[in-house]
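Chapter summary example: a protein plus thymidine-5'-diphosphate.
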Amino acid sequence: MSQALPYPSAPAQSESRGVLAIPAFRKLWKSMAFSSFGDWLGLLATTALASDLGGNYKKANFAIAGVFIVRLLPAVLLGPIAGVIADKFDRRRLMIICDILRFGLYLSIPLVHTYFWLYTGTAIVETVTLFWSPAKEASVPNLVPKDKLESANQMTLIASYGSAPFGGVMFSLLAGVSAIIAPFTNTRYSSTADLALYIDSITFLYTAWVVYQLKIIPRGAASKSAVNDNIGKSLIDGFKFVSHSKVISGLIIGMLGAFFAAGAVIGLGKTFVGDLNAGDAAYGILFVAVFTGLALGIWLGPKIFGQFSRRRIFGISLTISSAFLVIFSLVSNIVLAILMTITLGAFAGLSFVTGFTLLGLEVEDEVRGRVFAFVQSLTRISLLVVLAVGPVLAAVIGRHEFTIDNVHLHYSGAAFTLFGAGIIGLVVGIFSYKRMKDRPKVSFFSDIRAAFRGELGGITGKSHKGIFIAFEGGEGSGKSTQVELLKTFLVGIGEDVVVTREPGGTDLGKQLRKILLDPKTGEISPRAEALMYAADRANHVHSLIQPALARGETVITDRYLDSSIAYQGAGRIMEPNEVARISRWATESLTPNLTIILDLPADIGLARLNSIDRLEQEPLAFHERVRREFLNLANVDPERYFVVDGTARVDEIAKQIQDRISQIPQLKVNREKLKK
Ligand code: TYD
């Protein structure tokens, strides 16, 4: 359990393949995948062995808790020290020695066959792994070029976690093998768990051999450990940063909830299966089911729910997953339980990828490492707690029998504890949904309805380094004046500012603008008009806005997507959602950090105009509809919109806008503050 936790920020397929094309890395990777497989098998085996040695219900559960504690505790206690020590030795030799030690230790556990050695041996294996991991971590940069490091890390995670279901399948198969060979062997050394541990030990011997052959790893110690394993420091640092953001804190609380629930299933699985009178094979399959579900959720979830807001999906999938955990704890049938487990795993997987994608989107590059280290430390601790406490609780609760209307129900401590974990998951899921949801005035159900009509577009667009601000409003609302005032203000506080407008931000845009606004153009069909504005916008985003944001600049645009929703949607009386969908496609869902709406009764605005263009010729009712639509949009999502009274004095308006802008966390001044 000492592998790093998975942070799937989804590399392009070709990238991850690319890194495996490097022969030395491929060799190391294959051996890592094989030994992770062995490790999962070992995890199943040691818990099974603990419960076999345990005897009665209470003892067996304490024994299982013990296994998890000895597996996780060394990392918590010795992690930081081990990293420092490991950095002082020759990497390759250290890895080989560690692997040979692990081979011997795993082999000895079934042979010695006592509690004492099960725990001591496991704790030593974990300690040895603490030295092995930094050595491996430090060797990878020698095997792959710098720009492939990220995908190398991702491949490592795939090896660590992708091998879990294979471990589960193997364990179930070994249950069969053990039954077949039982008559011919000494059963003391040939139970399922024993066989699994023999195989586990061999995987480490193999890794030792592979590393021995990797002479490409340079001699000597690594200069600096790649992993920051100081749990205390990363907790404090991360906590400071995380508490600034409602979304990130909601996210992290939710992810802890997910680990809590998943840990409960893993920690109590063996007992739960035993309570249903199912054996080792079923335990293996339950394990496979969890990971199959997780994999399905991670792989298919984002495809199926791509239409949805990630900030909403996260809490919702966590809640659904927990609901299934509650049901799971109530069914006393192994087949149903396994089906439940797959579903539960799938939603947990979905919330997991969504969570990590969001972390990647919401957290800036500079602090991402710190935040991820924070999450990693927190999850380790929460796993330790749940894996250790879960079985103990189950033992204390014990078995109970209920009779309701002549129906006998057996519920054991494991079922009760899982039920409790499910309820905690439910509460946490609902909490983080509430905390993180965007567009507070749009209900969950109307989102679902919209998704069925295909009207939601990726609501959470790509993240960008710079800040994107849009000004919107009816005719004569004074946008141009305020755009200039805001620019002066932002330049004054050290931002690099680009001012642009729609239509007409680019060369192509200028030509489109002429066609669109010149009264001589005459009538344009409403849909053609919408498409032309969208075409202008697509070009604008692609060739001007996106590059500036990527450089970290602040972009202020005079009008953006909401103008189309208001003018072509509400004004021309087309479905505003459909118009929005075209623009989201055109802009690849690039959404402003803040949209400022200068609100003004249509007649006052129109009276301010000197000349009249094609749209301004429209009747008053048209402009009233436009105004109402802007206000509707702002009403639905107060986080992203700021409405200012356009009839106020110019300097008052400017002041209000500056106050609101100053709260944007990505501003350079604010970033400085956050760092302190
Ligand atoms: P604007 O740049 O505000 O014109 P002006 O320089 O006269 O203030 O707006 C151009 C016109 O284009 C305005 O009437 C609104 C209209 N418009 C749309 O109808 N849809 C859109 O998507 C955009 C960006 C503008």
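Key point: The chain has a mean pLDDT of 83.
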